[in-house]
Design goal:
The complex is a heterodimer of chains A (184) and B (195). Chain A has 184 residues and is an alpha+beta fold. Chain A is built from six helices and five strands. Chain B is built from five helices and six strands, in the order αβααβαββββα. In chain B, α2 packs antiparallel against α3. Classes of the chains: A alpha+beta (184), B alpha+beta (195). β2 of chain A pairs antiparallel with β1 of chain B, so a sheet runs across the interface.
């Protein structure tokens, strides 16, 4: 049976390497709440993007070359929020259910579109969606043994509808778009 | 005499109110019994033993959005738009295990007990020792299909698919690989047994 979901952490992590992407941890917003939840649940601290920005340009260029040709823009320009956790301990010892429950509690106004847990790899991926008038907010949370990433972007309803057809690729497409957007 | 008539009126009022409550409760129970959305949360206990768990939830609002914004000009999107038009939800839950014997029929009872409701009819029941089993159920409401459920099990895998809305087997086969619905190889399947 075909596995329905495969969200690449590597792809998501690329976003965090881009200097133009702002880190966001504003009080009161759901993105910040999720970042804080991860910090409290796993006793970790998110990284400041400037530390990682040095590799950003090279990575973005590489990704742009790989993707090739004119790309359709998915994420709304300037809508990307990223928080990155590097080289910290995310081993959950089977506490996925508790974390998932906490995530759902924090993101009450969001629809839990996809939730994937792979205990063997100590990996978790979540995609939440929220109607925001004439656009959609999408939040992608990916956690592995030593790294984690939280991404929030705005998508047009048309882009959302297209991506909904293939949720396997949704996280990756958003990531690639966020990574390469504004770089060409 | 006046007192007696007032008492009788009060008794009649109480009886009418009780009857109304009973009717409302009956209607609610019927509605619940015929809800094409099946509950899968009882399976969550298996997550602790699974090597991978996947939950896909496309509720009515997301479904409506998808239908609204898929293009009617692009042939591929147009086809999908027609397929999902009218659907009120797609829900997929799957568990993959490292080894055999990580789940039993008792674990699946919470799903099967819902599908034993007379509103559900089993249209496919394919079983093999090697490939596991696939059971497909449809719910009829008012002479129309109002939901579909698939319970697919392999030795190391469980998949539950629930589609709410007017969907038949043909539609399901065309939706395989879309919206998180895994490829179950149902194409060409024909109803083998009806309950």
């Amino acid at each position: 049976m075909k596995k329905p979901i495969a969200i690449s952490f590597t792809g998501l992590a690329l976003i965090a390497l881009i200097g133009f992407v702002p880190t966001t941890q504003a009080k009161g917003d759901d993105f910040g709440e999720v970042v804080r939840l991860i910090e409290q649940f796993y006793h970790v601290k998110h990284e400041g993007i400037p530390l990682l920005a040095r590799a950003g340009m090279k990575t973005a260029t590489t990704v742009a070359r790989i993707s090739g040709g004119p790309r359709r823009q998915i994420a709304e320009a300037g809508s990307v929020k990223v928080a990155y956790f590097e080289d910290q301990n995310f081993r959950s010892s089977g506490s996925y259910a508790a974390f998932k429950s906490s995530m759902n509690s924090v993101l009450t106004g969001w629809s839990p579109f996809i939730q994937v847990a792979s205990p063997k790899e100590d990996a978790q991926s979540y995609i939440y969606l929220r109607d925001a008038g004439n656009k959609f907010n999408v939040m992608v949370v990916t956690i592995e043994q030593r790294e984690a990433c939280v991404v929030q972007v705005n998508l047009s309803p048309e882009s959302m509808a297209k991506l909904m057809r293939n949720p396997d690729e949704m996280g990756n497409k958003i990531t690639v778009e966020a990574t390469t957007n504004d770089k060409e | 005499m006046k007192l007696l008539s007032q008492t009788l009126l009060k008794i009649a009022s109480v009886k009418l109110a009780a009857l109304a409550v009973l009717l409302m409760l009956g209607a609610t129970a019927t509605a619940l019994a015929q809800d094409p959305r099946i509950q899968t949360s009882q399976l969550d206990a298996l997550a602790a033993k699974a090597s991978e768990t996947v939950d896909v939830n496309i509720d009515e609002s997301l479904m409506a959005l998808t239908t609204k914004f898929l293009s009617s000009k692009d042939e591929d999107e147009k086809k999908v738009k027609e397929l999902v038009s009218g659907l009120k939800g797609i829900y997929v839950k799957s568990f993959e295990f490292e080894s055999e014997g990580q789940y039993t029929d008792a674990d699946l009872e919470s799903i099967r007990s819902q599908l034993r409701n007379p509103a559900w009819s089993r249209i496919i029941n394919a079983r093999s020792k090697k490939d596991g089993s696939v059971e497909v159920y449809v719910m009829h409401t008012g002479g129309q299909i109002s939901g579909l459920a698939v319970l697919a099990t392999e030795l190391k895998e469980i998949t539950v698919i629930n589609i709410v809305g007017p969907v038949d087997l043909e539609k399901l086969t065309q939706l395989e690989g879309e919206f998180g619905i895994p490829d179950l190889g149902l194409e060409g399947s024909k109803p083998k047994r009806k309950n």
